[in-house]
């Protein structure tokens, strides 16, 4: 509870969230959400569907170049929900195919969900076996995502002042 971000401070109607550095400075750096609506009123736990949109998880969500929304979620284009969660994993976890899932396919899903969610980059990414991947795997996907969020580049390292990484392209 010491680090819990208070429910009454959570942005409504698509407003911006505070910077993580500001949340840390106030010791309010833990975001807690529930999928049970009544817990927001009874326990002060944020009902996730009031704050985020989410794509379909599991096999039904592993569709190339599309980002279907999860049934419980508002449509991905609903900008009154300021957070975007991207799922990319099979219905049944298979360690053997996670290398393939957690690589270029994951980056492609993040890009597809960017378009599907009204040109908003994901705030959260959920995968199985995050340490497994071809090339940079899920870590490279997050470097790409963070680069897009921070400075519009394809890699977060290109956002550093004086970077010569050459990975920066327009968002």
UniProtKB/TrEMBL annotation:
What are the TM regions of this chain, as residue ranges?
A: none
Could you tell me one molecular function GO term of this UniProt entry? phosphoric diester hydrolase activity
Top-rank taxon of the source lineage equals: Eukaryota
Q: Record's Pfam families?
A: PI-PLC_cat (PF26178)
Q: Which GO terms describe its biological process?
A: lipid metabolic process
**Record-linked PANTHER family:** F21F23.12 PROTEIN (PTHR13593:SF51), PTHR13593
Query: What's the protein called, per UniProt?
Result: PI-PLC X domain-containing protein
Species, as recorded: Trapa natans
């Amino acid at each position: 509870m010491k680090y819990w971000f208070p429910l009454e401070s959570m942005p409504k109607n698509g407003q911006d969230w505070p910077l993580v550095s500001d949340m840390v400075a106030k010791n309010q750096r833990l975001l807690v959400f529930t999928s049970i609506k009544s817990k927001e009123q009874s326990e002060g736990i944020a009902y996730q569907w009031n704050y985020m949109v989410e794509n379909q998880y599991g096999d039904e969500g592993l569709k190339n170049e599309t980002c279907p929304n999860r049934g419980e979620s508002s449509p991905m284009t609903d900008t009154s929900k300021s957070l975007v969660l991207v799922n990319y994993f099979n219905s049944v976890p298979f360690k053997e195919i996670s290398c393939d899932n957690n690589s270029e396919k994951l980056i492609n899903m993040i890009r597809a969900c960017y378009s599907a969610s009204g040109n908003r980059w994901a705030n959260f990414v959920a995968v199985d076996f995050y340490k497994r991947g071809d090339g940079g795997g899920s870590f490279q996907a997050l470097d790409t995502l963070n680069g897009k969020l921070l400075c519009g580049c394809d890699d977060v390292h290109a956002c550093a002042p004086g970077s010569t990484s050459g990975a920066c392209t327009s968002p």
